[in-house]
Amino acid sequence: MKTRRHASLHLACIGLLASTALLALAPAQAAEAFKLAGKPKIAFIYAATVKDGGWNESIDNGRQQVASELGYPIAVAESIPEESTALKNAIDLYVQRGFNIIVTTSFGYSDGVLEAAKKYPQVAFLAASGTTNAANLESFYPRTYQAWYLAGIAAASVSPNKTLGMLGGFPVAPVNWDINGFALGAQSVDPTIKTIALYTNSWWDPAKESQAAKSILEQNADVIANNLSSAGPFTAAEKAGKASVGFQLDMSKMAPKGHLTSVVFHWDKYLVPTIRKIVDGSWEPNQYGAFPGLAEGVVDITPLSDKVPAEARAKIEAVRAQIIAGSFSPFSGPLFKQNGEEAVAAGAALDDAAIWNMDYLVKGTVGSVK
Amino acid sequence: MDIAFLGSWLGSVPTAAIPLLLASVGLILSERAGVVSLGVEGYLAMGAMAAAAVTLESGSLVLGIAAGVAAGALLALGFGIAVVLLRAEQILAGLATMAIGLGAAGLLGRDYVHRTFEGVTNVDLGSLAQVPLLGQLLFAQDPLAYLAILLTLGGWWLIARSHFGLRLRAVGEDPATADVAGVNVQLHQLFAVTCCGALGGLGGAYLSAVASNVWVENMVAGRGWIALALVIFARWDPLRAILGAFLFGAVEALLPRLQASGFDAPVYLMGMLPYALTIVVLVAASCSRARRNAEPAALGQSYIRQDRR
Question: A234 to chain B: which residues are within 8 Å by CB?
Fold first, then answer.
């Protein structure tokens, strides 16, 4: 189930992308604000256990933040299978019990939650890594590539061999953009730096991930960036005396010596303001889903380790400020694909539809998305 | 592909192969006694979880690995009691055991998920490991890998050469005749099934304590099923299981290395390889006459004396 959930999370995004792609064509719709009936009662529905050390745990941290900041009662359902009937039963029961704000946390729920949103127009739905949207339903996923770009700068600053490695699950857009963001961040420090991209073909196999990390280390890589959430690669890097970068949660405990930083979610930065709006009646769900980033604080990097030199710290701080101000995009042109083809010309940057469509790796990476 | 590449590739094969090997040797023991232990995926999960949890609690890897073995054996003993003494249908009971193992491991291991610990380190034989090509494979493994090979040889001796093995095989071939000859059928089957659990538990402990130094739910990822296929490939012979397990290990270790060295290979296709290999192996095995001769004749049948004809 967990495997499917992870797969889903990212595969998901392809669907979201389809709707984003339409954004360019469709005339802007004036969405109507959603009115909540009665007192807010919130429920979170997870596809796996919330102590998974990755995706679900990060969202559950956000939920706890919501509970403490807004003070509403929050119910939690774990390990609800990603099939419409199971989800439907859970939602039906919650709605019957008077819950009127429901947060789902898996791509696999996308269709089921849309059905539920149609059935219960008086209930507000928020779907993490979902692909569907409606008048009372908003999907959300952050621009993780922005934070990965910053991590790439940090990684390049500690790489005498000019070689980095990154592990991903499957070659789908949200993984590709993380790898590309990381590689481009590194190249902004040193254009000759090489990033080895390795897909393990699973979201959850620590033994396989350790093997993969070792294969990267055998290629003289100085840093292992782990886009998956298991500990194997961190341990492998730590044993080899190499640096590492984590994802989803702060992974510094996994590699006390080599950890440089982790790209982490701060889901509360999206959930708290959104739920506030739902409660005060000013919520207008984005018909193409929410795509927040560093500026909103939904994704960020953890404090850099002492291994990162001062020069790199200053650069990371400066670039971070530029991204937040909106004056810089990691995917600014000229940007070249692995095969030398130009992805975006100088002076322009990839738009959201192109980012959701990212099915390639950038120049300077070793690896295959096929 | 230079010597260094081949050397490091071969050197990493055992890490991928040993859990498969231990699980399939356990299965061979069980099946030679006529019991199909489909729950092996669950034994692996219990072993992996218990090894990690006890190591984290006690700080002792030896205790942790022993706990992994015990957890697998305990689950298998439950299965054994159900199918051998209570005559439950083996396939269904096996599937249930697998589900219980996976579920219990997830539940009991809840507080230990994702906590890394210092795992088993490789032996250091100094310059021997520098021998080109085979140095890393033969002389730079972890102690458990060597132990696993010894256990496999021991398992082979037990089955093929010992008096006990003769009785065990008799039970798997024709329990009624064995019974008449004075062999305690139930006891032999229970022993074999429990050994299968212990070896599966050790394989799971290897996954968490050696291969990844962490426990997470679902980390066994279908290895138990590959082991089931390996048993047929090995024609119920532990020595041939070494060959099969290392073949699978070699493929698993090769895939990331090809990718990391820039070989332009289709990811999905390569990810499919071990499973495609499983099917090829099964088809090849079922085509051969040797397989039909090797399969224990009473495999999957439950027996008690009153049934004797």
Answer: 116
Predicted confidence (pLDDT) per residue in A275-329, tens digit = 999 999 999 999 889 999 999 999 999 999 999 999 999 999 999 999 999 999 9
Q: Could you state, in order of their start, the residue ranges of all structural domains in chain B?
A: 10-307
User: How many other C-beta atoms can be found within 10 angstroms of the C-beta atom of residue B133?
Assistant: 13
Given a contact cutoff of 8 angstroms between Cβ atoms, the answer to whether A246 and A226 are in contact is yes
What is the complex's ipTM, to 2 decimals? 0.76
Architecture of domain B10-307: Orthogonal Bundle (1.10)
Which CATH fold topology does A146-264+299-366 show?
Rossmann fold (3.40.50)
Distance from C-alpha of B264 to C-alpha of B60, rounded to nearest angstrom: 43
Q: How far is A277 from chain B (nearest CA, A)?
A: 35
* pTM as predicted: 0.82
CA distance B206 to A328: 48
pLDDT value at position A32?
66
Structure confidence at residue A16 (pLDDT): 47
Partner-chain contact B260 A52, CB within 8 Å: no
Note the pLDDT of residue A307.
95
Distance from CA of B117 to the nearest CA of A (A): 9
Q: Which alpha helices (DSSP H) does chain A contain, by range?
A: 2-23, 55-70, 84-96, 110-119, 144-156, 173-189, 206-218, 232-239, 268-280, 310-325, 352-356
Q: Does A235 touch chain B (CB under 8 A)?
A: yes
Element (H, E) at B70: helix B61-80
Task: Outline where DSSP puts E strands in B144-298.
Answer: none
Confidence of residue A369 (pLDDT cuts 50, 70, 90): confident
pLDDT tens per residue, range A240-276: 999 999 999 999 988 999 999 999 999 999 999 999 9
Are both A2-143+267-280 and A146-264+299-366 of the same fold? yes
Task: Tell me which residue in A198, A209, A232 faces B259 most closely, judged by beta carbons.
Answer: A198
CB contact under 8 Å between A2 and B218, yes or no, is yes
**How many alpha carbons fall within 13 Å on the CB side of residue B260?**
27
Distance CA A301, CA A282 (A): 31
Residues A11/A14/A15/A19 CA torsion (nearest 10 deg): 160
Above 80 in pLDDT, residue A334? yes
Stretches where chain B sits below pLDDT 70 are 1, 290-292, 306-309
CATH topology of domain A2-143+267-280: Rossmann fold (3.40.50)
Question: Which residue of B110, B219, B261 is in closest CB contact with A219?
Answer: B261
Domain extents in chain A: 2-143+267-280, 146-264+299-366
Phi, psi of B88 (to 5 degrees): -70, 155
Question: Does residue A310 belong to the interface with chain B, where contact is any CB pair within 8 Å?
Answer: no
Burial class (CB in 10 A: 0-12, 13-18, 19+), A306: exposed
